[in-house]
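Cross-check.
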Amino acid sequence: MRGLMQDHQLGLDHLFSRAERLFPKKTIVSNTPRGIERTTYGEWATRTRRLAAVLDALGISSDGRVATFAWNSARHLELYFAPGCTGRVAHTLNLRLFPEQLTYIVNHAEDEVIFVDKSLCALLWPLVGTFNNVKHIVVMDDGVGAIPDNVVAPQVHDYETLLASVEPIEFAPLADEHRAAAMMYTSGTTGNPKGVVYSHRSIFLHTMAAMTTDMLGVSETDVILPVVPMFHANAWGLAHAAVATGATLIMPGPDLSAKTIAGLIESERVTLAAGVPTIWMGVLAELDGRDVSSLRVIACGGSAVPKALSEGFRAKVGLPILQAWGMTETSPLGSVCTIKSYLRNGTDDELAQLRTSAGLVAMGVEFRLADPDTGEIVAWDGESRGELQVRGPWVASTYYNDDRAQESFTDDGWLKTGDIAVADEEGYLFLVDRTKDLVKSGGEWISSTDLENEIMACPKVKEAAVIGVAHPKWTERPLACVVVREGETLTSEEVLAFLKGRVAAWWMPDEVVFIDEVPKTSVGKFSKKTLRERFADHVLPTAR
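Predicted model, tokenized:
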């Protein structure tokens, strides 16, 4: 017997029309080099319909890839919806990738048009001649920068001029919710970046997940500040969820300095802000004397949140960081650290420790832990470690046109995330490390993440990254790379003394080196690959 419900396609067009009809008076705020610019969802919807007409006028094919090279702004939000609502595919380009990676991505995706902020033209223009399929470049004037003189090959247009030349169009009803709506490439820490293609259905369901109370609880009453870039894992779903609910959006633009972010939280009365740990490390110091009482959620992901950072926010603003886990391949929400009701009476130390977990898996997503060597499933016992594998309706099933895809998926269809994790009996996930970042000492694993978090609990430490360095006896031993806070002095002996009693004796770093800054990846994570290259020939004291 079959159910008798209507077979209604789930897609971006519904999210769009909901904002247009129900919340036309709600506001989108963009922080630009010219200053704060405000628009409404009603105005944004009309412009998005005009943009759809522009794509037709430019001759972009029916499923053409529409690339963006832009900061978070209302214009970028228009580009999140116009392609998908016309059957095309929005493709956000990570502006922090290496030039050769950008060339690879644009050509691999077969982008036909690139929309670029004028402030970023200088970064894009040297690569224009390497793009095989790009026929048009559309420049969005964000107040600074200039279009280089050496214009070659593609036609160059002004965004506002194009919008003014057309009339808004109606969107045809979505015929297939499994049709591609957007695509994004992984940050490419090893090899070329890999393409993840999101369907209308996956974005719709992920948006609903972001709206649930046990995830981020996005609602119309929220004022959302996605510090996370729109080219990083769909801005963690916040751009779509804001449109679906009519939440006020605060787009930070190019200025992601701690002072500016703290100022926006205060002046715009932000309720939900989201970014990677390195962002919040800087913002914490800028909150003194500010009224940020509007905040209800400080969401953090991308890498493990140090306990000292989360507790620092709890001490200063009364609100600990809400840790979440996900990746480009999971759209990205996979889990969020909400505390079960019967666990909320725990001690401060117990709750602080629980908040260091990646939390509970999202409804709709399943996870399991598998021994990375044998593939055997490990127990949820709070001790057994395994590679985190996930599956669900907004989890990638393969990579776009990539013969490496089989390496990342199990024979029975689970995504191999590359994260090593432990699950306790309550189902809370504790990320131990990335498989490639674990330190294997004498056949036993040392978690670089756990060591980093303990080191960063030292008041004099600003940042710390731990990598494995070759050792003749133990195969590898941990090397701690430490950044000292401004105005402080610190010795390696002090760091090691601080760690005594906090980690197992055999986990103690063989050496502490002091560096000016931990290098970052294109999405703000610690780049341990860079550190491993830098210290590839380093000889540990015990190995001399």
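Residues 364-434 form a domain with the Luciferase; domain 3 fold (CATH 2.30.38.10). The chain has a mean pLDDT of 93. Passed to J.P. for a second look.
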